[in-house]
Design brief:
With about 675 residues, this protein is of the alpha/beta class. It has 27 helices and 21 strands. The strands form five sheets. The chain has a seven-stranded mixed β-sheet with strand order 10-9-11-12-14-13-19, sandwiched between helices. Strand 2, helix 6 and strand 3 form a beta-alpha-beta unit. Helix 14 packs parallel to helix 20. The site of thiamine diphosphate has 13 residues, from strand 4.
């Protein structure tokens, strides 16, 4: 092996050692929790040295040496250690060794969360995105200088492998033969949980269960062995696009983190056993064996220690972030700010909502080669359980429209990686009731990526979610989830109630550089539920787009009635729009109805101005009422419109039951309906 590579590894290992010592000696200054790479340096450097700027890496929180190997300076890393404003990764928002990076000189690193194992799905999504871009010969597919294909490295601790989501990622990678390396650094500890307590097999044996996952087990504390192994693995993955698992056995020499200290739970014997595998003396001995002089090596160590000390002083002196930056980069800015195109073109037939969605997506796919559609049953054979993707598979081919296994976490989380490559995924969770397995990816990865990467990695995706009760759908096909979703900051949520809104919002959702969830009511899809005929509308023009965050007055009250104090407004969305409209028929001229159309961002301007006009307001929702979005909104309205109110803000939602019952009479008893709304209106008008 090239002696310069060995020497470089030695220099960087000494650097990592000096950094760990500096942090330990300055615990009062290094007050934010951090982990160091001590013990893991050899495999991390060996990996970093193989990578090209066209590649992608998802390091985990112990991968500080990997970052040094990629060329990040100790100073750069220390700015994050101290959560300083100049931290290039997250500007003071994230922990040490939680990088994200976009630049021509190094591999791309998407935002890294702290949730163990959760990066496996986003990282696999990157590989999926690269494979797609390559297949369509996209200019977005970036190769190395010599035409090398890009690869993805997803780095994980051994204890994170037992997370279920890791298996979803492996499953997808082997199924699609993706160019990804899962690097598992096995120090046999998961904080204080031992390997014996947590598993019956190590990562190497576990990998055997995934047919097509190549695997190798190596001594990750030996730099030369690690380097040679990673070189071969990287070559294989680059050239043959196969997923590979590298099981690297390493010691853990430092603390789990600065807060969870090794002496709390590790025995002298265990510490001594790990110390014997320290990669630094191993590499030093090899260099001595190759003829390097000990004093030269010691001098290298002294020089890097001095440099680390200086950089630490500089990092300490760097400014804290400006508190005003705390609200920056929640979302990337969108260009869609005004309604455009023709909403009701002349001479066109009315379409049902489900077709309006389908036609919107068809036009999107015709216009954007990066747009792809996946989820359960959305492929050509069925075209979605609601036929909501019917014909798309045939028209665009199964590389653009395809079925996935039942993996809600993968469906949602993979969009993080896809989006980072420039692919624009439109994915579907089959029923709102089944979004729960995907909520972790949504909250942990999708929603936080833009904010915590300081705007570098907004996740551009549309997540379609059929929702709501439609008469006898039963407890697991009728539920509402908007409050749950609205508690997650960093996503946008549209909830159209007619075909024109569906098409316009779908276009806006797709063109938005942020994650947008489309809640699509199953009861409105075909206007089959009595009283919902108006959900069918003329199909808007191809260029029609309706910005998110704009509510709509779907019924106006008479000016006279308003002036005489004989009116009220109903603020609602989804099926509520039809309950309200039908109930309003008995109160001619007295009711004004606002269809929110988007739940986040929320058209507060329209809401508050309407409530102020009427002084009486009912918020109507299909969700169970207690602690719902509707109740939270009622609180906000009460505060904002207090002096204009002539009655307390009323809320009508479903009964507070754990589920929508199967029997249609029980379902009816639980949900709001036209009659229940009428009762509320009477109470409100008579206040
Ligand atoms: C989903 C999740 N659960 C729990 C934690 C708390 N936690 C942080 S590190 C860790 C142990 C991880 O061990 P391993 O993956 O082997 O990595 P190591 O720290 O040993 O390098 C745990 C449980 C977390 N970060 N994420």
């Amino acid at each position: 092996m090239d002696k310069q590579i060995l020497l470089n590894a030695y220099r960087l290992m000494c650097t990592a050692g000096a950094m760990a010592r500096t942090y330990e000696a300055n615990r009062q200054v290094c007050k934010y929790v951090h982990s160091t790479s001590r013990g893991h340096e050899a495999i991390q450097l060996a990996t970093a040295f193989q990578l090209l700027p066209c590649d992608f890496v998802s390091p985990y929180y112990r991968d500080e040496s990997l970052l040094l190997g990629l060329g990040f300076t100790p100073y750069t890393l220390m700015l994050q250690l101290l959560a300083k404003g100049d931290d290039i990764f997250t500007a003071g928002k994230e922990y040490y060794s939680h990088p994200n990076y976009r630049g021509d000189d190094k591999p791309t690193i998407i935002h890294q969360s702290s949730a163990t194992g959760m990066q496996a799905i986003p990282a696999t999504g990157i590989a999926q995105g690269l494979q797609y871009l390559q297949k369509i010969n996209s200019p977005l597919f970036k190769q190395g200088k010599n035409g090398e294909s890009p690869i993805v490295v997803c780095s994980l601790g051994d204890a994170s492998l037992t997370e279920g989501e890791v298996s979803e990622a492996f499953q997808f990678a082997v199924l699609k033969k993706l160019p990804i390396i899962y690097l598992v650094q096995d120090n046999r500890w998961g904080i204080s949980v031992t390997a014996e307590e947590a598993r019956t097999m190590d990562a190497y044996k576990f990998a055997k269960g995934f047919k097509g996952l190549q695997r190798i087990s190596i001594d990750g504390s030996d730099f030369s062995e690690s380097y040679e192994a990673m070189k071969k693995v990287v070559k294989e993955v680059r050239e043959n696009s196969v997923p590979f698992l590298v099981h690297a056995k390493v010691p853990l020499l430092g603390h789990h983190t600065s807060g969870v200290r090794k002496e709390f739970y590790r025995s002298e014997e265990d510490l001594a056993k790990h110390a014997k595998e320290d990669p630094l003396p191993k590499l030093k001995n090899r260099l001595l064996h190759l003829g390097f002089e000990e004093h030269d090596l010691d001098e290298i160590e002294a020089i890097v220690s001095e440099a680390v000390a200086q950089q630490f002083e500089s990092a300490k002196a760097a400014p804290e972030p400006d508190p005003a930056t705390v609200t920056e980069h929640i979302f990337a800015p969108t260009n869609i700010t005004g309604e455009q195109g023709e909403r009701t073109p002349a001479g066109k037939e009315k379409v049902v909502m489900v077709d309006a969605a389908l036609f919107a997506i068809r036009e999107i796919m015709e216009d954007f080669p990066e747009a792809i559609v996946y989820g359960q049953d959305v492929g050509a054979r069925l075209g979605g359980v609601f036929r909501e993707t019917a014909t798309l598979g045939e028209q665009f081919g199964n590389h653009r429209v395809f079925n996935t296994a039942i993996q809600e976490a993968y469906i949602i989380g993979s969009t993080v990686g896809m989006s980072a490559t420039g692919v624009k995924p439109i994915v579907e969770v089959q029923f709102a009731d089944y979004i729960y397995p995907g909520i972790n990816q949504l909250a942990t990865e999708v929603a936080k990526s833009c904010y915590l990467s300081n705007g570098k990695f907004p996740v551009q995706t549309v997540i379609r979610v059929p929702i709501g009760a439609y008469g006898g759908g039963g407890p697991y096909h009728s539920g509402s989830i908007e409050t749950l979703l609205l508690s997650i900051k960093g996503i946008k949520i549209a909830y159209p109630s007619d075909a024109a809104d569906m098409k316009g919002l779908m276009k806006a959702a797709f063109l938005d550089p942020n994650p947008v969830i489309m809640l699509e009511h199953k009861g409105l899809y075909w206007s089959k539920v009595p009283g919902t005929e108006e959900a069918k509308t003329v199909e808007p023009s191809r260029d029609y787009v309706l910005p998110l965050g704009k509510g709509n007055v779907v019924l106006k009250a008479d000016e006279n009635k308003i002036r005489n104090g004989e009116s009220c407004c109903i603020i609602t969305y989804g099926m509520g729009v039809y309950w309200a409209k039908n109930a309003a028929k008995k109160f001619t001229g007295q009711i004004e109805i606002i269809d929110l159309r988007t739940l986040f961002p929320l058209d507060e301007e329209l809401i508050f101005s309407t409530v102020k006009k009427h002084g009486k307001c009912l918020i109507l929702t299909e969700e169970q009422q207690n602690n719902s979005f509707a109740e939270a909104l009622a609180g906000r309205i009460s505060k904002e419109c207090f002096q204009f109110l002539d009655a307390p803000v009323q809320v009508l939602g479903a009964l507070n039951l754990p589920a929508v019952p199967m029997n249609i009479y029980l379902e009816k008893a639980m949900l709001p309906n036209e009659e229940k709304v009428e009762e509320e209106i009477i109470k409100l008008l008579n206040y």
